[in-house]
Amino acid sequence: MKLANSPVEQIHVAGHDVFIKRDDLLHPQFSGNKARKFLYFYEQDFPTVKKVLGYGSAQANSLYSMAALCQLKGWQLEFYVDHLPQLLLANPSGNYAAALALGAKVLPAPVSGGEQIASYLQQLAANDPECLFIEEGGRMAEAEYGVAKLAEEIADWYQAEQLSQLALFLPSGTGTTALFLAKYFKQHELAIEVFTCPVVGDAAYLQQQFDQLCANRQWHPTIVAPAKKYHFGKCYRDFLTLWRLLNQTGVTFELLYDPLGWMTLLQTAPTLAMPLMYLHQGGLLGNSSMLPRYQRKYPQLFSD
Ligand SMILES: *Cc1c(COP(=O)(O)O)cnc(C)c1O
Predict the structure, then answer these.
(1) 60 alpha carbon to ligand 1 midpoint, in Å?
(2) For the chain, what is the total number of helices (H) and then of strands (E)?
(3) In a domain, 296, yes or no
(4) What average pLDDT does the segment 93-111 reach?
């Protein structure tokens, strides 16, 4: 099965030529940065494991990717959520529906709050060799294994193109992908600079995430704070407008992270005299639950 060597394409957006690393094309089900972060679990042998314990949002890309991982490995996924929205229960869509179709069990957590759920599941798994606990969104040291492979592909492409500099942009949730990419390029002394923006919290939160994963700040990516504060998962007119502009290139992006990721690129590009690359981290299935939310909030933008 092919879980590597996603293609690089070039698109033209708002006056910039941008190379796109198409990790959305890795595999129909196991794609994007979650496939990279979970590659370790796919490739390594876990002879006693029968069940994966995960948690997060019922709409999360990581729910779907974990369900795909478990199906490939013959494991049962139990995914715990703080809250299961009524609308979603009545009308399963997007990542949630696709994960159920892959056999995942999505269950209400017996405790509330992310940290409490994590330590509850961690403890369950620690006492049961049949259970494997995976951190929310793949925020863990094991993610470095697959993200380093992604970095190696980008480095190979960069060398084949005979570039001497490259600016790589991607939006961050936990920051795990951006951090391990930057670390790889710094360790291999390549002039590939990683730029990222916080999508889930603010810049201070993202810095904290980086510090937890890697104490050496010289290996951290450059954080670009968005010009204005946006709340994670909310619908913004600016996001939809930019998303539509991006889609005119023929490449479809997603609506949770990509609008801010591209805003960061467009904000920073004029100050950089070097080739630009954007990492497409997948997550397209989430659009089928995000778009109806946009349509309910801004019906006038869907009037044709
Ligand atoms: C999970 C996800 C992210 C965030 O990745 P981190 O490694 O947590 O920063 C970004 N984009 C998409 C499409 C994702 O699914």
Answers:
(1) 10
(2) 12, 10
(3) yes
(4) 95
Q: Is 196 in the pocket of ligand 1 (CB under 6 A)?
A: no
Q: Are residues 65 and 204 in the same domain?
A: no
For ligand 1, say whether the CB of 175 is within 6 Å of any of its atoms. yes
Task: Tell whether the model's pLDDT for residue 5 goes beyond 80.
Answer: yes
Rounded mean pLDDT, 87-104: 94
Contact predicate 283/177, CB 8 Å: no
- The answer to whether residues 53 and 21 belong to one domain is no
Closest CA to 65 of 33, 93, 23: 33
Q: Is 59 in the pocket of ligand 1 (CB under 6 A)?
A: no
Report which DSSP code applies to 52: E
Q: Is 54 in the pocket of ligand 1 (CB under 6 A)?
A: no
Task: For residues 295 and 152, state if they share a domain.
Answer: yes
**Residue 58 belongs to domain spanning:** 39-133
Band (pLDDT 50/70/90 cuts) for residue 248 is very high
Radius of gyration of the chain (CA): 19
- Expressed in angstroms and rounded, the spacing between residue 283 Cα and the centre of ligand 1 is 8
